[in-house]
Design brief:
Blueprint (H helix, E strand, L loop, with lengths): L2 H7 L6 H25 L5 H16 L1 E9 L6 E6 L6 H5 L2 E2 L5 H8 L3 E3 L11 H6 L6 E8 L2 E11 L7 H51 L6 H33 L6 E5 H17 L4 E6 L3 E5 H17 L6 E8 L9 E8 L6 H5 L21 H11 L4 E6 L3 E9 L16
Helix pairs in contact: 2-3, 2-7, 3-7, 7-8, 8-12, 9-10, 10-12
């Protein structure tokens, strides 16, 4: 055995078996890291990618939880994007801004180096806002920078070694390698999403642009009757409005998919929001003699009111568009019961009595730019409303879905987090005498 090999494995008579075992464990860890790297490169979906990274981080470092914070390219703020902590919903994460100047993660960003903290509570750089928000205790952690193209784009943190184990140099090297691979994968996913959306958007813009071009060509003909001229001008106005809606919704979707659209969460009354949204479409429904019924329990949501209102408005508009004349719409909001526990989620649904959807339409319902023909046989809208609604609901940690039956109607439903009031302090016992 060479001197170099002997120095690694130790003395032939002391600890040789232990050294070999450590070497085999290290090789197994790096083989697993190579396998994870292939998995990261196999997806361009940012949400899937982030979840794979945090689960890989907990596995490779043998820790209780892990999280990813990314720098917002627009504001420069450091925000949570993913966590394996089950109590940390996406909506709760996005509400937390981690200070660059007074946090361990901020230190990692500024210095571009790993930071290992054995006792987080006694480290002056430790930011307690996260633990207080999600009711968690951070004992120790390892944070490493995610660097892409010589630029720090975020931080991966592994938190709380299991069973009181000690951090090792291998933990630092492994998580640093994972973070480097993750940074490139995240940048690739972001670029792909942008190029994919742009390509789809350009394709969709061609139809109204061609319509505008044809209309303006007709307007230039001197023999065109005045009534026909007015019809063409009306068509131009309609196509211009459609282009405006498409570009606005395209930008909104791009922000949601890239993670730049943040949730402005607050506590608000769900029934009031539903009533307010129904009033917006009530005249539109009345023009077709459609009656809207509301059955909403008194619920307090913990969500972004403006974005939730947008989801409800989209579902109501669709329910009118695809309904029959003299039809009905039922809007409901109920808590999702969980045995003896206080409900944490509510279910909102919008049911119509329209013609329902074919199986073919149901398969494409949440695809970008897909538009089903309405009751008059025309394809309307931008085809982005339901996709945006889905992204908003999922950003809150909820789920959205539907069920439909031809000739009967369609029901869309989604879940939202409820505001959980803190438990009341027990009354102090009355003093005697």
């Amino acid at each position: 055995m060479s001197d170099q090999t002997s120095s690694y494995f130790g003395s032939p008579t002391l600890g040789n078996d232990v050294a070999i075992q450590k070497y085999l464990q290290l090789m197994a860890r790096y083989e697993r890291l190579m396998e994870i790297s292939r998995q990261l490169n196999s997806t361009l979906d940012l949400s899937t990618l982030l979840n794979r990274i945090i689960h890989a981080a907990t596995e490779l470092t043998d820790t209780e939880t892990a999280s990813i914070m990314l720098i917002d390219p627009k504001t420069g703020e450091l925000r949570f994007e993913a966590s394996s902590q089950p109590t940390m919903t996406p909506g709760a994460m996005e509400a937390i801004i981690v200070p660059i100047d007074n946090s361990l993660a901020g230190w990692v960003v500024r210095n571009g180096e790993p930071s290992l903290v054995e006792d987080a509570r006694n480290d002056p750089r430790f930011f307690r806002g996260v633990d207080e928000t999600i009711d968690f205790e951070t004992r120790n952690l390892l944070g490493v920078p995610m660097i892409a193209h010589n630029r720090v784009i975020g931080v991966v943190q592994a938190v709380n070694k299991r069973a009181g184990a000690q951090w090792t140099e291998d933990d630092i090297n492994t998580l640093t390698t994972l973070a480097a691979q993750a940074a490139i994968a995240i940048e690739n996913a972001r670029l792909f999403q942008q190029s994919d959306l742009i390509e789809e958007m350009v394709h969709e813009l061609r139809a109204p642009l061609m319509g505008l071009r044809a209309s303006t060509t007709l307007l230039m003909r001197p023999e065109l009757p005045e009534t026909r001229r007015r019809d063409i001008i009306s068509t131009i106005q309609g196509e211009a409005d459609r282009l405006t809606r498409m570009t606005t919704e395209f930008l909104d979707l791009a922000r949601l998919e890239s993670g730049r659209a943040r949730l402005d969460t607050s506590h608000f009354d769900g029934a009031s929001l539903i009533e307010e949204t129904v009033e917006i479409v009530r005249q539109q429904a009345a023009e077709r003699h459609i009656v809207i019924h509301i059955d909403a329990d008194p619920l307090t949501f913990d969500a972004d009111r403006g974005k939730v209102k947008r989801v409800v408005l989209n579902l109501l508009t669709n329910a009118i568009k695809y309904n029959r004349d003299h039809g009905e719409i039922f809007v409901r909001a109920k808590p999702i019961l969980q045995g003896d526990h206080a409900p944490r989620l509510a279910r909102l649904e919008v049911q119509d009595t329209g013609r329902g959807m074919s199986e073919e339409s149901q398969q494409h319902m949440f695809e970008k730019f897909y538009r089903a023909a309405d009751t008059a046989g025309y394809t309307q809208g931008t085809g982005l409303g339901l996709v945006i609604a889905k992204r908003i609901v999922e950003a809150h940690g909820g789920e959205i879905g539907f069920h439909s039956e031809l000739g009967v109607g369609t029901t869309f439903y989604f879940s939202l987090p409820l505001h959980i009031a803190p438990a009341a302090e027990p009354d102090a016992p009355a003093q005697q005498g």
